[in-house]
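Obj.: predict assembly geometry.
Materials: sequence records (below).
Method: joint structure prediction, all chains together.
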Amino acid sequence: MTRGGVAEQGGNVGRVKVGILGATGLVGQQLVSRLEGHPWFELVALAASERSKGLRYGEATSWMLGPDPPRSVAGTVLCGCGAEDLAGCELLLSALDASAAGELEPLLTRAGFPIVSNASAFRQAPDVPLLIPEINADHLALIDSQRTDRSAGFLVTNPNCSVTGLALALAPLHRAFTVRRVVVTTLQAVSGAGLSGPRALDLVDNVVPFIRGEEEKIESELTKILGRMEGARLCEAELRVSAHCHRVAVQHGHLEAVSVELERSASPEQAARTLAEFEGGLRDLDLPSAPSRPIVVRSESDRPQPRLDRDTGSGMSVVVGRLRPCPVLGLKLELLSHNTVRGAAGGTLLNAELLVARGWLEGRGST
Amino acid sequence: MTRGGVAEQGGNVGRVKVGILGATGLVGQQLVSRLEGHPWFELVALAASERSKGLRYGEATSWMLGPDPPRSVAGTVLCGCGAEDLAGCELLLSALDASAAGELEPLLTRAGFPIVSNASAFRQAPDVPLLIPEINADHLALIDSQRTDRSAGFLVTNPNCSVTGLALALAPLHRAFTVRRVVVTTLQAVSGAGLSGPRALDLVDNVVPFIRGEEEKIESELTKILGRMEGARLCEAELRVSAHCHRVAVQHGHLEAVSVELERSASPEQAARTLAEFEGGLRDLDLPSAPSRPIVVRSESDRPQPRLDRDTGSGMSVVVGRLRPCPVLGLKLELLSHNTVRGAAGGTLLNAELLVARGWLEGRGST
Amino acid sequence: MTRGGVAEQGGNVGRVKVGILGATGLVGQQLVSRLEGHPWFELVALAASERSKGLRYGEATSWMLGPDPPRSVAGTVLCGCGAEDLAGCELLLSALDASAAGELEPLLTRAGFPIVSNASAFRQAPDVPLLIPEINADHLALIDSQRTDRSAGFLVTNPNCSVTGLALALAPLHRAFTVRRVVVTTLQAVSGAGLSGPRALDLVDNVVPFIRGEEEKIESELTKILGRMEGARLCEAELRVSAHCHRVAVQHGHLEAVSVELERSASPEQAARTLAEFEGGLRDLDLPSAPSRPIVVRSESDRPQPRLDRDTGSGMSVVVGRLRPCPVLGLKLELLSHNTVRGAAGGTLLNAELLVARGWLEGRGST
Amino acid sequence: MTRGGVAEQGGNVGRVKVGILGATGLVGQQLVSRLEGHPWFELVALAASERSKGLRYGEATSWMLGPDPPRSVAGTVLCGCGAEDLAGCELLLSALDASAAGELEPLLTRAGFPIVSNASAFRQAPDVPLLIPEINADHLALIDSQRTDRSAGFLVTNPNCSVTGLALALAPLHRAFTVRRVVVTTLQAVSGAGLSGPRALDLVDNVVPFIRGEEEKIESELTKILGRMEGARLCEAELRVSAHCHRVAVQHGHLEAVSVELERSASPEQAARTLAEFEGGLRDLDLPSAPSRPIVVRSESDRPQPRLDRDTGSGMSVVVGRLRPCPVLGLKLELLSHNTVRGAAGGTLLNAELLVARGWLEGRGST
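Observations (raw structure tokens):
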């Protein structure tokens, strides 16, 4: 089934049947919300932990995206995360936390499911694409290393929420000028920590300069994302990254202050132009979640700001501003991306759309 | 009059008579508060703008440091900032904003007043010390270049609130290992912008990635502070600094994420030891505002935090934590300093105390 | 021109030409935003103070509702607030502040403009409707007292932002059970104070228990809104209201804790039913800004909450929860309404739509 | 041992040996902090849950009151809450949560310990004083009903954190004018919920209009506190209270908007005078934690505010402002009290001091 095929068939008939793993969490909620009325996907299963299994979605979920979950799903009964629970799904979107994903995702791919995951458990596995469609769609070739026959399942992941925006902003600069070194300081929103995130006690009149595991993720995921396929293998990009991570009292939107060293120097104006012109090669695919511009460059002195800019491109665009010379590394800038949209659920969904558009789900029947 | 002299005379008799310029603003309030019961200084004049002149301090001031201004000053009538208004002062502490300082400070030094100023107007003047007593007390020699005879006034300044903490944390590293390059990202408190600071509209659920003039100040003041006297001239330190500044929803306490390149590399442990052992050479002077330790190093993974750590050493210690290797520049750390105390009023006061202890006010009568 | 007429004419041809007074402020921005694509109104003039006149809207406006103002208006040149500037407008929407409104609105009505105003200047004038369409559409009859001939202008106002939600929640109870006494405590969002609202310094780790003039407005406007027409005169409702007002660190959404004494007692369940069933009599008019339900009743123990519930009904529904017995006055509840939408721009617009639907603009040509 | 006795003995020798139950929580931390250097009490045991038992206090505690716990206790090994663990204590201060208190406090009183508790478990027991020394010191007579011989232990409690301030502000009005009805709306700080309090997700750009059990506590505790002893029995005050509770993004300080109906009406000026003159009859006892004024009345239009006023009287004074007529109940006002000080640890400590001063611990040896 190709995207074209979907379009031709029209209506619900040809939509890919998807299930969400971890549907009650913050990222799961964003997936539910963004699948509402999705032209390519039909949501057929909401899977949750054993504790919530059997409850209706509306009862089990502390819905945080507005007054109520969409009516179409509020009454849906939550299923478990076993293969038998998910029969009927052609594709799984995983919003599991790392430890659950580490256990469940391999079982489900072995059971034949293609999984597009937001979880960190397998992002660093050498045969798992760490995918941002505008940057490294060619990494999908790694899928073939995962499976021996086309009927088997496979796993594709999207990066950590604070890496996604950084990778998107750096990719065009890397292509044009080759990024050598990056120092990035993040100011991350509370929704990035999910429903069991930080206490108000820690963030009223305060900032916490630490997020467990986050700096390591930024430093290691970026080089994989920007890596190049050499034959069937992925070679990581040769650049060094240093991250300082902070949690601040913001609901959504990770802000990042970045200093970059480029191999071939670029003026702030050249960099701005390179970023603004970046298209990411998705235009012809008409992916429903792809923003009209992956990167929006702003020229004001005090932007981007989380509250004002996080919903740019329905939360799928990275907003870059304050491009200026860096006395130490050459170029500096500020970037913002919506952490639960582009940095999580929206990124997962865009990856799933790319899989469909590129035919990776073809030939698969309902499991 | 030396510090010793002050001590010998005891009581109020021998205390230096000081006036505050800009007494109603946030920094002025901190000065008022910290002069309450000060052993060396007697507050004899509270000077404000023409608009407030003649009002009582308690009426004219929107006091932000607790329920009420100290009783001893609440009823004091505000005077103007003219030399005649301030006759009776042996020393002026200036909490004026930059433009008022640019106009008034030269008039007052010419009228014979020594001024210790928090204002930015003359920080970059080549003959004006940009003083942090623990770091560059020898820069006081510049005073001689300012005046032709000992009866004349002079000006000493303290650095910008976000520079002070950075300079204190870097100075011992610079001495021991020579700092070459610094990338610093600040998360600055709202009190740093004074009484006419940012709107709640801009900081509820938001961060503003810009503070006018701040990055320039950090980049230029640090090299002056860390400079060396060569004869009567100050040679700036040869290091490069790049700053990214943010305003966050915190009352007090500037947090700074720093990556540092050292000429002679140091492990995080060596750096921690160097910082923790730093004394700053003030011990013998017994300056009343000097903290027992200028730098406090914490070993927890998530500290310093503004709300928890800003009052360390009565707000006069810089708190450093998260010392760890930086993949790009070699060493990284997080630091916090109280912006209206060490970074402003407390810094001003410490400078004033150093002047007294070193005898710079000797031989001056009341003007 | 009736609403039906508008519909029949279709397209832009038959839309009413409107101008916004005070277009750059927060309420003006909401008006601009909600007029984008409005089926009945065509925005033809953006009027601002003399200071901004001549600038393009996008330059003059510190846009707070997202990344950018709508493209259709960003390039529009701001005009002044004089009658000559506004020729071409068939209707004016006023988002002026009280003092500007006090001066300009009478000049403009005398010049023949119908004005629907959010300003407080004339809310208490005996011949000016203080209009909430679902509650007191019959108060429009007061317009006839304002003007001697049908060609003249007139003024209609909407209530204060914290009164609107309260009036909507109390009106059905008043009709069914007669409200006698009300004690209301508000927790109001910062956007209620407009672009020159409270400082972050006052709202980080703090609440301000005072909003100038607000308690008086609540106590006096409510009785007018709930009043009855007796012939051509409006008789205020005989009920007593006591208000306690607070400003809290919330962007949008005024939360109000209300205790009510009813003449004929009602159980929480009866009250809930009465509120949930309230329609407001607008259904047949199909006003574009009217929400499907003016009042949404929630049954959770911890709702409404500003962040979750303020956009209910596109910000035009009042959300009521926590209906329970009050040991003192009989019934208590919590309500929320979006202060810059239902409580300001959305309320103004709904009033304007009612005027059109009821034919109050008929027979008027372009001035 | 009487207070006088303590004073006479001087030094540590005569200090009462106290233990803290629940020492690692927020209220426990405040107790630890306020016992540092206490003239009457010597802290000899820090008791915690089985989980923390055996750890050093500094390791086991997530200290929230500044950089570090006092040095004197940081190295103390936590003991359990059994009678044997606490041998050596002459008095226990309980900062346990309600369920732990419900289980442990009876065991410990039976084992002979006097306990002064902040927990809610037994506040409503008819023979347990719900004590605020300035209001109802005579309720201590209830202790005699609790025990059959003087060697046995007993329990005294302090009220809920949002009730304490309310009771203190109403008590003088009740005495002078007889309070009949009260409607109170609270805006409560996050520290009121302890270390496992609300998520940042719920309080950034938001308010939660619900705190489990809180309204019930306010409505029931107030009448007990203001009750009168009739012989050996306590008769609750005959007044009706209605509470609306909210959690807001404030660290410390519960703000309460109160409307009061008095039997004998009082003008705002009379009420202000009555409150300001209130002494509470503790002056002669010189209790170390008693503030010089239990109630501080402010005359500004916008006070009290949590951040500015919570530390009035070292957090032990209730601050009252905005006294004005209430159109519904007669009088209205705003009050603030520090929830973890006067409303918890400070209140507990003051109660303990009263017990000592009144001789309730006399004749008891170390258990």
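Conclusions so far: Chain A has two domains: 3-160+345-357, 161-338.
To do: check interface contacts against the pulldown list.
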